[in-house]
Amino acid sequence: MSELFPDRIETERLVLEHESAADADLFERYRHLSTDAVDPAAFEYIPVSPHEHPQDTAEMLSHRHERWADGVGATYVVRPKAGEDGAGLPAGEAELLADWEARSAYFAFGLRKRFWGRGYSGERADALVSLAFDRLDLAAVTVTHLVENENSRHAVEKYVERFGGRREGTIRNQITLDDEPVDTVRYSISRGEYEASDPDREHTFHDGDD
């Protein structure tokens, strides 16, 4: 268990769960990330590739466990609750990367295409924004999306505006995608903007066996 990050976060419709090294089901994760299983559209705008073999998944999980143990990153598997279509299935992931010196956090989200259009992105963003400010006492959060990714733009703008944040602008050649440099759009929310927005905090953090 990390003393910094909650092991589980519950929102109205979602459960975000950290998979420890002991709990992670390597082959379940591989089944949902393998080249044969994924819809290419889900990877069109993110700088990762489908997994070609289970070793890719094992390396990914190992890297995430190290970041968790070092207190610099938390990755959660997102699963819909009972009553939702696809309840219990891995719908996607939510990631928070902390820069403690800068007192800021960066968010990364991924969602399987089957679960698009339900508002899950904003719901998990609400929980991670609260995690960054209410629990980790950070001063700012940031998120980016590729310039061409209209679906992400709509989702990000909606929750950034809700928390009083802002669009900072386009960052040229920030990442590579298919070995080519691409531009991203960056947004940020400050602690003051978050507190002034009077957030609902409709989620629960659970540690260990809570």
From TrEMBL:
<feature type="region of interest" description="Disordered">
    <location>
        <begin position="190"/>
        <end position="210"/>
    </location>
</feature>
<keyword id="KW-0808">Transferase</keyword>
<dbReference type="InterPro" id="IPR051908">
    <property type="entry name" value="Ribosomal_N-acetyltransferase"/>
</dbReference>
<feature type="compositionally biased region" description="Basic and acidic residues">
    <location>
        <begin position="192"/>
        <end position="210"/>
    </location>
</feature>
<dbReference type="InterPro" id="IPR016181">
    <property type="entry name" value="Acyl_CoA_acyltransferase"/>
</dbReference>
<feature type="domain" description="N-acetyltransferase">
    <location>
        <begin position="13"/>
        <end position="158"/>
    </location>
</feature>
<dbReference type="InterPro" id="IPR000182">
    <property type="entry name" value="GNAT_dom"/>
</dbReference>
<dbReference type="Pfam" id="PF13302">
    <property type="entry name" value="Acetyltransf_3"/>
</dbReference>
<protein>
    <submittedName>
        <fullName>GNAT family N-acetyltransferase</fullName>
        <ecNumber>2.3.-.-</ecNumber>
    </submittedName>
</protein>
<keyword id="KW-0012">Acyltransferase</keyword>
<dbReference type="GO" id="GO:0016746">
    <property type="term" value="F:acyltransferase activity"/>
</dbReference>
